Amino acid sequence: MDTAKLKDIKLKQTLISDAEKAQPRLRLLWKNANETQRKEILELTGAAESSIDRARRSGRVSAKIVVPMAAVCNVSPFYLIGMTDQTGPCDEDEINAFLEHFGYVKRVGAKGTKKIDKQTENVAAAKEMLMATIDDSQRAFMERMSVEDIIAMIRAMAVRAEYDDKYKQMLLYLKMLLLNI
Question: If you count Cβ atoms within 10 Å of the first and of the last residue's Cβ in the chain, which end, N or C, has fewer?
């Protein structure tokens, strides 16, 4: 994969990992990376080595660090954050799938990436969607989601709710739904 394209992606420092799984994986990856790979990761992230070290020690990592690490070392970013146990190769399609999974809508190679969550563009539409009858394709999608995926989504929403009123409203709707109000 051409890692030069990653320089244009503007990723935020939102924590996205399962720390228990990510921590040993990040440590092993960094330990096995040669000096050239380490320098390229640092250059692509724009982060200090202390930030990478903190991520490795804690297992708490953001897309800003995971994407370059995955691309440079050719390891699936989903594996690095603990979402899958398959190391897999890392190519543009894998990076794009990872970015889309976490709400980054523009793809690798595009000028800049703006993080948005389409469900929050219109809170009223999100509420109507929750109240609407679920069709078969939606039901099939939700049945494929693991408990870990759902928990990760709720945690991400709770973190976002601390800084964004739209997410606070959505989190309130979700709580009402869960409490069957």
Answer: C
**pLDDT tens over the chain, length 181 residues:** 555 555 555 565 556 667 888 889 999 999 998 999 999 988 888 888 888 888 888 888 888 888 889 989 999 988 888 888 888 888 888 888 888 777 765 545 554 444 434 433 444 555 565 546 567 777 787 778 888 888 888 898 889 888 888 888 888 878 877 776 4
CA distances from 40 to 23, 70, 136, 154 (A): 21, 12, 45, 33
Cα separation, 171 vs 66, whole angstroms:
27
Three-state DSSP class for 115? Answer: strand
Of the candidates 101, 105, 94, which has an alpha carbon nearest to the alpha carbon of residue 145?
Answer: 101
What φ, ψ does residue 25 adopt, rounded to 5°? -70, -45
- Report in angstroms the alpha-carbon separations of 136 from 133, 139, 141, 142, 178: 10, 5, 9, 10, 21
36, 9 contact by CB (below 8 A)? no
CB 92 within 8 A of CB 41: no
Question: Within 13 Å, how many C-alpha atoms sit on residue 109's CB side?
Answer: 7
Report d(CA 148, CA 138) in Å as an integer: 18
Helix (DSSP H) and strand (DSSP E) numbers for the chain: 10, 0
